[in-house]
Write a structure and sequence with these properties.
Length: 81
């Protein structure tokens, strides 16, 4: 099981981390990844100016937004599972 941490610190919260989490949750269901991927909330991971920050197991993905969340999930998370 791999884990992705989505920052819910103030800067990321203001830039829409809640919507990013909701989109990721939905995509986990759509692609039936419940046994492969878990989502965790994280407090500030130090990249506030590039919010929303998402920490994949091996790398931090920056500037995630509700507009690009689906595309990022597919190309930057699902592709690495
Ligand atoms: S609040 Fe998200 S990286 Fe700082």
């Amino acid at each position: 099981m791999k884990a992705v941490r989505i920052c819910i610190g103030s800067a990321c919260h203001l830039k829409g981390s809640y919507q990013v989490i909701e989109t990721f949750k939905e995509l986990i269901k759509v692609y039936k990844l419940e046994n492969k991927l878990e989502l965790n909330a994280a407090f500030c991971i130090g990249r506030c100016t590039e919010a929303v920050s998402v920490a994949r197991w091996d790398e931090t993905i920056l500037s995630v937004s509700k507009e690009n969340a689906k595309e990022i999930f597919i190309s930057e998370i699902m592709a690495y599972l």
